Amino acid sequence: MVRVDPETRRIYLACARGLVAGRISLDAADDAGLDIELPVFSVGQVGQLANIHPQTLRQYDRLGLIVPKRTEGGARRYSLRDLDRLGQAQHLSQDESINLAGVTRILALAEENRQLRRQLRRSHQSQESSMFAAAADGRVVEVRRSSRARLWRQDIADREADPTNSKSLIVWSMSSSGR
User: Fold this and answer.
1) Cα separation, 57 vs 59, whole angstroms
2) Which domain holds residue 46?
3) Which helix (H) or strand (E) holds 170?
4) In sequence order, what are the residues at sequence separation of 6 or more whose Cβ sits closer than 8 angstroms to the Cβ of residue 95?
5) 167 domain residue, yes or no
6) Where is the signal peptide, in residue numbers (predicted)?
7) Which whole-number Å values give the CA distances from 157 to 77, 129, 150, 161, in the listed order?
8) I need a surface site. Which of 5, 53, 87, 125 has the fewest CB within 10 A?
9) What is the tens place of the pLDDT at every residue in 2-30?
């Protein structure tokens, strides 16, 4: 289990609050660079965030509805993905009156759909040219190019290719035999 520093924990907690309140989506957290699978939250924290009794969370774990990761000591640790699943499960069971077997199936399909959307977004991004940089520790990392920079480069290329922007002087000679 990875140790999480206090600043990172605060960032994940703010994101978790946004997820529970419906202000942000799991895809937005993923796109922002957060590891949505990082097990950060204890049973008590998730209970407070989602306004659900910790015993209900343990029951969901036993049923396989929301299965958190475990520490070496066996304690449950929930990720942002788990919190998102919990919110969806609560909505489906309480607001839509769907039984837990149905909720489990719907959540599995929703996760598959989310993964496919993510792969599609990343494949579109990889079709664009990529830039690479060296990280502080020497690793090579891919750097996303911004669309603004891409448009700027395209604008420069278009201006250079436009003959009306040319600084060249064309001299025409008219011979007297052509008149």
Assistant:
1) 5
2) 6-127
3) none
4) none
5) no
6) none
7) 51, 16, 11, 6
8) 5
9) 788 899 999 999 999 999 998 999 989 98
Other CB atoms within 10 A of residue 35 CB: 16
For 139, other C-beta atoms within 10 Å of its C-beta total 8
β-strand partners of 16: none
Within 8 A by CB and 6+ apart from 16, the residues are: 40, 41, 49, 80, 83
Number of domains comprising the chain: 2
Is 173 part of any domain? no
DSSP characters for 29-81?
HHHTT--TT---B-HHHHHHHHT--HHHHHHHHHHTSS--EE-TTS-EEB-HH
- 57-98 pLDDT per residue, tens: 999 999 999 999 999 999 999 999 999 999 999 999 999 999
pLDDT tens, residue by residue, 112-147: 998 898 888 888 766 655 666 777 777 777 666 666
Report yes or no: 21 and 56 within 8 Å, Cβ to Cβ.
Answer: no
The pTM of the whole model exceeds 0.85 = no
Token pair of 30 as six digits? 């993923």
Residues 142 and 157 in one domain: yes
Query: 93 vs 43, 60, 61, 88, 106, CA distance in Å?
Result: 20, 12, 16, 9, 11
Residues 76 and 109 in one domain: yes
